[in-house]
Amino acid sequence: MSDEVVTPLSHEECWQMLREEEFGRLAFRLVDEVHITPVNYAVDHDTLLFRTAAGNKLLSVAMGAEVAFEIDRYDDHHARSVVVRGGARILHEDEEHRADNVPLRPWVGTPKYNVVEITPRVVTGRAFRLTRPWLHLTLDGLGQE
């Protein structure tokens, strides 16, 4: 990582991070509301797959809404974030087997029979060197004694 506080991640670095993680946040529009929800996912070649039950996510995908998907990783000194924007579709029965060929592991045992594929149009990422300026503040600097 360079001396810059914020640096862009390359396309390859973004996809490497997407392959290494399994949990992210899906943002979607349903009529006039924007929703965001956590999902477990897996990379299948150049797409993302996740399973879902009937509900808002599935309805939004069925209605053809565009989605955004975000993952992040951080420690005390560095953070990384990748954002995917694109279309989503419900896989047909003859394609659902793709979810069995990737490490798609749900965290809860609720039934999720529908497999959704996100096809990215845009994949971007950034790396941050965390300076955590609040650690350097004193009570005097906050106007307190």
UniProtKB/TrEMBL annotation:
<dbReference type="Pfam" id="PF12900">
    <property type="entry name" value="Pyridox_ox_2"/>
</dbReference>
<dbReference type="InterPro" id="IPR024747">
    <property type="entry name" value="Pyridox_Oxase-rel"/>
</dbReference>
<dbReference type="InterPro" id="IPR012349">
    <property type="entry name" value="Split_barrel_FMN-bd"/>
</dbReference>
<protein>
    <submittedName>
        <fullName>Pyridoxamine 5'-phosphate oxidase</fullName>
    </submittedName>
</protein>
